[in-house]
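Regression check, phosphoric acid mono(formamide)ester case 370:
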Amino acid sequence: MSLDVERPGVGDAPAAGDSTPAGGRPPAVDRPPAAGAWLHRHLLDVDALSWPDIDLVLRTTDAMREVLARPIAKVPALRGTNVTILFYEASTRTRVSFEVAARNLSADVSNIAVASSSVTKGESLVDTVKTVEALGARILVIRHAVSGAPYLAASVFTGHVLNGGDGWHAHPTQALLDLYTMRSRLAGDVAVTAPGAGRFLSGRKVVIVGDVLHSRVARSNIWTLTAAGADLWLCGPATLLRGFEAWARAGAGGVADRRFTVTSDLAAALRDADAVMALRIQQERMAGGMLPSLREYAARYGLTAERLGAAKPAAFVLHPGPMNEGVEIAPDVASGPRSVITDQVTNGVAVRMALLYLLAGSAGGEALGG
Ligand code: CP
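Current build output:
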């Protein structure tokens, strides 16, 4: 993965057929997307995205936020396009925000409740995907407990597939909304959001603490945060970091300037941090012998106001949700002045609007593997 890819429509001069205006301003999203403005047919993970791709997602999200601020937060951009939401796993934030995002773009939305679908009669994922396509789906948003399931769906679906989270593997829209939320929080620094702004997390220390091993959120964030230049630290008990050391040494994509730090020393991780993300600790991890007890985890790794005192004064706190308050994060931190957790949820709608919009204008993109 190259961070230096120059791509039509992301920079100073728009290419023919590109909806991105000169100067890197947000694209005009009131009308349907221009064909070819986005090169990836699917969004299965963020590892296929170059920095200019990510920057275009962020700027398109700016445009969507402007839409959301209107008295009627709706544009006709995806009128006549069917977006089908197929979640095999529980979700509140991702499922609802995709539904709201698609409706805000005037798409037709089908929400499949897997528990009351033919999946319960043994229908395979491939058959279900072919069925929803025959019913008119053009964009398929899928969540599945099995890593790789969205890739299988993409291999048989002729439209666009958006991964809403698969197993431990990837949660690309969460990583992009996390990045957008950080960018919004840092927006007082004009270098962050100015047209053509570079890797805006350069020189910023970002810490992810918790169950890294089982976290698709952490895996996708490794790509986006290092792409944005962050000094990234992953922290947790050694049992929940296994395998990440080698990746950290090689760097995301094997790129030297995208190395990150893996540690079980929470005090060292939090020292002078600019942003801290807590990850959910799941009860089932104890059954696997990975944690002695939730109480011990909370005592050693819970994000408390006292521990956050080691971070920079302006440091802010994220959590992808759902939260176990009192375990990985203290209630007063979750709802305190440093928390941007509600902003993450709100930004999820705008980011997903941007991604639906960009994919609808995709040229195909198989050549980029996306
Ligand atoms: N962050 C996240 O994926 O939350 P949901 O499981 O509620 O969608």
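Comparison notes: Residues 172-282+290-345 form a domain with the Rossmann fold fold (CATH 3.40.50.1370). The mean pLDDT is 88. No diff flagged against the previous build.
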